[in-house]
Each structure stands twice: as C-alpha cells, then as structure tokens.
TrEMBL record:
<dbReference type="GO" id="GO:0106312">
    <property type="term" value="F:methylenetetrahydrofolate reductase (NADH) activity"/>
</dbReference>
<keyword id="KW-0285">Flavoprotein</keyword>
<dbReference type="InterPro" id="IPR029041">
    <property type="entry name" value="FAD-linked_oxidoreductase-like"/>
</dbReference>
<dbReference type="InterPro" id="IPR003171">
    <property type="entry name" value="Mehydrof_redctse-like"/>
</dbReference>
<keyword id="KW-0560">Oxidoreductase</keyword>
<comment type="pathway">
    <text>Amino-acid biosynthesis; L-methionine biosynthesis via de novo pathway.</text>
</comment>
<protein>
    <recommendedName>
        <fullName>Methylenetetrahydrofolate reductase</fullName>
    </recommendedName>
</protein>
<dbReference type="Pfam" id="PF02219">
    <property type="entry name" value="MTHFR"/>
</dbReference>
<comment type="pathway">
    <text>One-carbon metabolism; tetrahydrofolate interconversion.</text>
</comment>
<dbReference type="GO" id="GO:0071949">
    <property type="term" value="F:FAD binding"/>
</dbReference>
<dbReference type="GO" id="GO:0035999">
    <property type="term" value="P:tetrahydrofolate interconversion"/>
</dbReference>
<dbReference type="GO" id="GO:0005829">
    <property type="term" value="C:cytosol"/>
</dbReference>
<dbReference type="GO" id="GO:0009086">
    <property type="term" value="P:methionine biosynthetic process"/>
</dbReference>
<comment type="similarity">
    <text>Belongs to the methylenetetrahydrofolate reductase family.</text>
</comment>
<keyword id="KW-0274">FAD</keyword>
C-alpha cells in the first residue's frame, strides 16, 4: 500500500523552522483566509475548527474556500459535538465530495459529556467511515501541557493506540498539539514521545502574534498553562499591563535551536489568535530574517 502523502517532505529538515507550517481558521474566517492567501505557499494545510456557533454548511464552505484558494483543507471533527451518526456521516461524505478533503483532524472536543453517540476520537475512528470515504491522513491532538482529565500515562497510552489504529486502517497518522508557551515543555514531550516508540510526525501548536489579553483569554479557555514565569520565558515580561502584543519569536527561536533528530519529524502549526494575516506576516518576516542570517 502507498504511504499517503501528508505534506511536507518530512524526511528533509526544513531550511527555516517555519517552512512547511500549517495554520488554523474558524468556519467564520473565509474572508480572513482570502486576505492572508497571497502570503501563503500553495498546498499549505489549513485546519477548519469545529466550534459551537458554526454549522455544517459553514464548515463545508470554509473547507471549499481552502481548496479553491489552492491550500489543503483539514476539517476538524469534534467527536463529542456530533449529535448523531448521520451528522458525522454527512460531514465526512460532503467534505470529500465538495472540497476533495483528504485529511481530517479528530478531537474529543470540550463538551464535558458526549452530545451524541461519540464519546471520543477512538469512537470516530472505530466507525471505519474515514477510510471508507477515502480519507488518507488523520490528525489527532497532542497534549504536551497535560490533559485536564487524564494522567500523563493515560495520555501516552491513548495517543499510541490512536496512532496505531489510524495506521492499521491504511491512513497516515499526524499529531497536532495543543498550543503552548513553553518551548522546553514541547521539546521534552517530543523526546519522550519518540522514546516511547511513536514515530508519527508532529505539528507543534504555536500561537500567532496577538494581543496579550486575547492570548491569556484563549489559554484560560483551552486549559493551557500561562503562568507569569512561563509567559516570561515566552517573552512577556509582565502580566500587569495587558495592552501589548506578544509574538512567538522567542519560542520559535528555541525550536530552531533545540530541535534535533531525537525529536523526530516536526513542523509548526499556527493558531492565529491575532488574525490570519497578522500571523502570515509574522511568519514571512521571521523566515526572511532567518534566511538573511544564514546567507
Ligand atoms: N486543537 C486542540 O488541541 C483542541 C483540544 N481540545 C481539548 O482536547 C481534549 C480532547 O482530547 P483528545 O486527545 O481528542 O481525547 P480523546 O478523544 O482521545 O479521548 C481520550 C480520553 O479523554 C476523555 N475526554 C476527552 N475529552 C474530554 C473532555 N472534554 N472532558 C472529559 N474527558 C474527556 C475521553 O472520554 C477519553 O477517555 C478535549 O477535552 C479538549 O479539552 C479540544 C478542541 C481542540
Ligand atoms: N480545549 C480546546 N478547545 C478548543 O476549541 C481549541 C483548543 N483547545 N485549542 C486550540 C484550538 C483553537 N480554537 C479556537 C477557538 C475559538 C476561536 C475563535 O475565534 N472563537 C470566537 C472568537 C472568540 C474570542 O475572540 O474570544 C469565534 O468568533 O468563533 C478560534 C480558535 C479551538 N481550539
């Protein structure tokens, strides 16, 4: 069987750490994507969130816009938010038929209980529908900052079994992590991941530049640690004045310096909390600076 291609060429280290990045949009962000598109490389994977306040039509329209603009759509499937098997099936079939989707991201989602028949990611995988409709690669969540409801040991076990399940179904597995602010945390987690025998490529979740207040709001909402000491490491010297903007410069520098073969196949995934265009401009400027230094 062919190994599905999930972009980029994971066997070549990136010239600049931001090369081969992926990015996320909400289903409401079609205009923002259009605005950012001229700055994005063709085939850039673009994840489309599965949030309350969106509906199936919006999510499909967003995936279609990603495809139309020449990028690779990766719709999120939030297991706990599907109200029925039918709703899941309709989404799976339609994203393939209408947006030529080849890869998806499956996550439990934030509801404390399932709102329909799927308690978690494994329940979605177990339907067998993803491979049946032609999906070639499945992303799953990684939690380097820990998971609110699982011990670290349970997290590793679940991660390993999801990767094995995806591969045994003939699809490529991909881990996309929750965002974070502490590069050492990510590097340690990646090293442990590889020591535990998980070879799946990882996309590290990096927050795009955004107002500090907004970053902290998202961190609280998503259960991501943002203590004063972690934020200081990130480059935010004080949490008393929330008027400023914070970018991931220091964190991405730390990945450029710290990532090695022991961390396996790694690229970045941007969560553009301060807007897609602002994130793209940041990536462009960062890459240009690195290339200048290297020249
Ligand atoms: N992009 C991201 O990184 C996103 C992360 N999340 C967070 O990640 C978590 C999902 O983790 P996955 O690795 O997909 O889990 P999973 O689907 O592999 O499930 C692993 C175990 O965690 C339990 N679990 C999952 N979500 C739960 C929740 N909200 N409350 C209580 N127990 C839960 C499941 O029942 C299962 O036993 C969610 O709980 C959510 O907080 C949610 C949406 C997006
Ligand atoms: N636990 C958890 N749940 C999530 O839903 C989640 C994560 N983690 N990790 C990162 C991604 C990023 N997520 C999101 C969630 C919401 C918006 C968003 O723009 N929401 C509002 C605006 C809210 C605001 O500004 O406070 C919207 O209009 O939909 C963007 C990315 C979803 N994701």
């Amino acid at each position: 069987m062919n190994t599905p291609v999930i972009h980029p060429n994971w066997d070549l280290p990136p010239e600049v750490i931001t090369d081969g990045f992926s990015i996320e949009m909400t289903a409401k962000d079609i205009e923002a994507l259009e605005e950012a598109a001229p700055l994005m490389a063709p085939e850039t994977p673009v994840a489309v969130t599965f949030l309350p306040g969106e509906n199936l039509e919006m999510r499909i329209e967003a995936a279609k816009a990603v495809r139309r603009l020449g990028f690779e759509p990766m719709p999120h499937f939030s297991a706990r938010r599907f109200l029925s098997q039918h709703e899941f099936e309709e989404m799976a079939r339609r994203v393939v038929a209408e947006a030529d989707v080849k890869r998806v991201f499956v996550i439990a989602g934030d509801p404390p209980e399932a709102e329909g028949p799927f308690a978690d990611t494994s329940a979605i995988l177990a339907t067998g529908l993803l491979e049946q409709v032609g999906i070639q690669a499945v992303g799953i969540g990684g939690h380097p900052d820990g998971h609110p409801n699982m011990t670290d040991e349970e997290c590793w076990a679940v991660l390993k079994s999801k990767c094995a399940d995806i591969e045994s179904r003939g699809m490529a597995s991909l881990i996309v992590t929750q965002f974070g602010f502490d590069p050492d945390r990510f590097l340690d987690w990646l090293k442990e991941l590889r020591e535990r025998g998980i070879e799946t490529p990882v996309r590290i979740g990096v927050p795009g530049p955004a107002g500090l207040k907004k970053l902290l709001r998202f961190a609280a909402r998503c259960g991501v640690g943002a203590s004063a000491s972690v934020m200081k490491k990130y480059g935010v010297m004080s949490l008393t004045n929330l008027l400023g903007t914070a970018g991931p410069d220091k964190m991405v520098d730390a990945f450029a310096a710290g990532l090695g073969p022991e961390h396996g196949k790694v690229r970045l995934h941007f969560y553009p909390f301060g807007g897609m265009k602002a994130t793209m401009e940041w990536i462009d400027a960062y890459a240009a600076r690195q290339k200048e230094v290297a020249a």
